[in-house]
Amino acid sequence: MKKRTFPIWHRFLDGTPSYLARHYWWAYLWRPAIWFFDHQPVINAILFNQYNRLLKQTLSCLEQRPKGRVLQLTCVYGKLTPSLLSQLGSESLTLVDVATAQLEATRDKLSTEDKHRLKLLRMNAEQLMFADNSFATVLIFFLFHEMPHAARQRALSETLRIMQDGSRLVITEYGPLPKNHWLYRISLTRWITTYLEPFLDDFWHEDLLSNLKQKAQQLNKEIKLVETHDIFSGFYRVSVFELSTIKTKA
Ligand SMILES: C[S@@+](CC[C@H](N)C(=O)[O-])C[C@H]1O[C@@H](n2cnc3c(N)ncnc32)[C@H](O)[C@@H]1O
Predict the structure, then answer these.
(1) pLDDT tens readout for residues 195-226
(2) 95 CB near ligand 1 (under 6 Å)
(3) CA torsion angle for 15, 17, 23, 28 (degrees, to 10)?
């Protein structure tokens, strides 16, 4: 009998969402790739030399934050997590990712003291195992454009559900559809970007703020955009939102 062969990405379906195994195994799940990508020159090249600006702006948006628990939703390559921990001083940080290899790689980057302040949890962002209103600050760095539409909608709703009254959400991501940016105008660079990032085009066509507002309303919450910082002529954007709970009269 002929032996059935499976595509390589099936090997990475170890409790990870199928879109992640299928489209990003080579970037986030394969251990040699994790080693390779987690080098500053590689990260810089992927982000068109904008990494330091993105990092600096993201950290600066987290300086003024409400008192309470801080969540970083998913791991990222580079020095974001160590830098955030150092900014948090003696406070602890919760870090969630669906890939064990990513959580381990992040832990390996930290000093012993930082390891004690980092709570690592394996979870799918589409279904967070936290109670409603658990966090005062949530940071999400380049996650949403990597999710298919339906998964992104679930992750957005879950994020708002676990955020408490007066909390702050910082999203570092691609900006809105960059029609006038040279990277978009040149067909080759547009093709490469959207080939490597198969869900980016959908993300570009989504209005993040109105989507967040609609989802917040369903949870009896209100969200407002309080800061935006365009980077690389708006190709990337750091956005800060504030969330409040709608008080109902007794
Ligand atoms: C934040 S994104 C990419 C960040 C950016 N490209 C970088 O590293 O600088 C990649 C991470 O998201 C995680 N991830 C993707 N989908 C997820 C999901 N549904 N739930 C939790 N983690 C997820 C991946 O395992 C990976 O560690």
Answers:
(1) 999 999 999 999 999 999 999 999 999 999 99
(2) no
(3) -50
